[in-house]
Write the structure tokens for this entry.
Amino acid sequence: MFKVLIAEDEDLIRKGLAYTIDWAKMGCMVVGEASNGEEGIKKIEELSPDLVITDIKMPIMDGLQMLQNFKEREFEAIIITGYGEFEYAKKAIELDVFDYLLKPIDEDKLYEVVGEVTKRISEKEILRKLKNTVKDIENIKLIDTEIYCQKSSYKYKNTPVVIDYIVHNYANKISIEDIADQLEVSPSYLSKKFKDDTCHTFNDFLNSYRIQKAINLLTEGKYKVYEIAEMVGFSDYKYFSYVFKSYMCCSPMEFLKANVLVRGGDSESNTAYSAELN
């Protein structure tokens, strides 16, 4: 339920909004009331509402002054007032107020606006969770294959051969046995030497490189997730999702959504995202 705070100095209007509106129908509940801006500030700090509905003209401190006290506010705001002057509307816009309603309040309009604002609140909450879930790519501990390819001091001469094979064949079904056969060495011996040199198993190195390629394709926004899975060498979509999540701490779809929401996304990425959901 979304928490609503109503700040209004006229008792009849404040109580009317609190008790005659079907807030539960809109997924909301009124958690507090305030009769002036100062009281409103205390209630906001105490109750952490998702939505504040406030009158502009109130004693002690008006609604706009109250909102100005929250420079980086975490709640949405709707202004209600009997004053329709442009300056009030302009100030409300500067404060990033969601909407501006005139008294007497049209109940149908109120339902419409609250429905729209709760949708925005939900989207912001999803975005917040995604930002917490999807870590910055720079902080993800994936393998920088280019650095490995540039190394020239490997103790084992075939380590660069294995890396080069991964780089050029990651989109296909490959295994350490394939490379060992070509090099005419034991797979177990090759695996051990590769891990000694890179501190990664063959499969970990391969999967990490594939996930990096998948990230690049996801951020391009041109392909569906199942297409990307095949393009980076995963014939099983479920296994691709499992491996992706083990590295990224989120599913490919969550990463795709975060890329669109966090980075804004261009028309192509939004189209791809919409197609993926459908």
In short: Residues 265-278 have pLDDT under 50 and may be disordered. Residues 137-277 form a domain with the Arc Repressor Mutant, subunit A fold (CATH 1.10.10.60).
